[in-house]
Structures are given as C-alpha cells and as structure tokens.
Design brief:
By secondary structure, the chain is an alpha+beta fold. It contains eleven helices and nine strands.
Amino acid sequence: MEEPVQQPPQPSGGKRKGKAQYVQAKRARRCDAGGPRQLEPGLQGILITCNMNERKCVEEAYSLLNEYGDDMYGPEKFTDKDQQPSGSEGEDDDVEAALKKEVGDIKASTEMRLRRFQSVESGANNVVFIRTLGIEPEKLVHHILQDMYKTKKKKTRVILRMLPISGTCKAFLEDMKKYAETFLEPWFKAPNKGTFQIVYKSRNNSHMNREEVIKELAGIVGSLNSENKVDLTNPQYTVVVEIIKAVCCLSVVKDYMLFRKYNLQEVVKSAKDPSQPHPKLGNGKEVKLESDVKLNQNDPSEGKNNQQVVPENNEEPGQTKPKPESQVVNEEGAKPELADQVMEGSKSNENDHS
C-alpha cells in the first residue's frame, strides 16, 4: 500500500527536471559557436531592430552582412585544426602533457568556431545583436547603407534599423563617463573636430536619466575640443547611445540624417518617386541630394549641405523636428551652452519606437 503513495511525486519531479534540461539545452545551442551568448560590456557588433520576427531578422542579417563582409574583407577563413603541430612520442606516456594537449585542442576548436558574425541575446524584444570579430562595424554598416541608398534595391523585409556598435560598457553614469572620455577621442579630440548630435534610446532600463546622460556626453565632447559644435540638422557625426538593461552601446556614425537614421526600409525609397512625396522639399533640392553624398564621402568637413531634408517616417511616428533657432551652436567654448543645445534637440530625436 505504501508503494503507490510514494510513486506519484516521482513522475512530477521527473517532468520538472526534464523541462529544466530542455531549457538549458535550448540556451546551449544558441552559444554553440563559442563566445558570449548575450550582450555584455566589451563587445563590438551591430544592433538591429526588426518588425516582430526576430528569427527572420537574424537570417536576413547574416545574409546581408556576409554579402557585404565578403565584399569588403574577403571570404571568411577558418584555421585548419589538422595543421597543428603534434607533440613528441614521449608526451603520449605523460598523462599531464596529454591533458594539456587535450585542453589546447578544445581551445583551438572553440576559436575555430568563432564566426565573423554571431547572434547573441540582446535583452530586448524586437532587437537583435550581431557580435562581430575582425570587422569595423561602423564602416561595414555605412557601406551597406551607402550602396542601398545609391541602388535603391530593397534587400530586407523585417530589418528596420541597423546601427553599428563600436563599444559597450556598463550602463551606469560613472562607467559611461569614464569609457566615453577615451572612446570619443578619435573623432573629437584636438586636432580632430566636427559638428555632432547625440541620439539616445533606452530599453528595459529605469535607472538611467536621459537628460543627464546627454548633458554629460556633450560636456565630454566639448572638453576634447572647444571647436566641436552641435548641429541637429546636418551633423558630421552622430553619437549613438543605445542602452539595453545594464549595458550601454556606443558608436559614432556619419550620414545619420542622410541615411534616414540608418533605416534600411526608408533609405531605399526614392525622393523623386511621386508616390512618396518629400514633405519639405521641392524637386530642385531633391536632385541636389545625390551630390550631398559625394561631398560627405570625400570630406566630412564639407558636409554642410541640406541633408536634414531627408525625412524619417517609418520607425519614429511620434517624432517632431527640432526648431531651427536651436539647431546650431553659434558661440565657442561654453560647455553648458553646448550641452543645452544637445538637450533641446534630443527631445525630438530620441523618442522613437524602434
């Protein structure tokens, strides 16, 4: 009589273990290529927003990135495991040496499986993060958008925006300030200079204050060179700040407004198409837009044309355009004014729904 009473808990316990094992196995498959399995500090990559279908988004991302990656960097190469030098015969009898060799083989095989592009958990819905190795993400993404802008060929269905991420750090103000002081130097430290804007987006994070982050980053840019100016209509550089949970993703990109805030769906739309009228321009200025691309590619310092005319009407339906009188800094050197100018424009630029 006691045996039937003791048996029911066993099947239920078995089911729970089975479910736990299934979840672990599913997670393990997502990182079977080695490397981190989720977004964390110290990574480079490409942050991609999509329209509800993350699996299809990853497939499109791999296809697109491999196509242009092979074009820029050549086909992906893998090391041949069989080419590793073999140990001496005496080591076969040494257990310790054999263990070391086995560990070395495991590490080598793991490195061999590290792909140029690898999807990791982003920590937010409708957001995909592709970790990159041996790739300059900002140059690759700019090349993709530049080609799509010229050819007007639509190559994706579910991918919306594709933002290069040149570095990640912990999403705490002190960590971000310390990281940004070094991170922003290649673009803004004297003798380098340029016009800029800061765009900010936060997901699944409630402890960061948008105004405070933008003001601190603008102050850092101003401290690197007093000639750095805010321009919310046609900046040479756009500082992208994407916060997901406890990770801050940073990058500095060019042609942000020209390429429709790096929106792949919008960048292929022709401004001359009557079915997609431009809300702000006449035909004369729309024709001039093509020449703006060449100017911006050859010399960023000449990028003072009317690139701000490009609209953004897909991902940010609630966005409003910044007022012209607050778009450009007219006086030099004043850090508080610099930060205030960025703050005024950021309110309209950053409340997107991507």
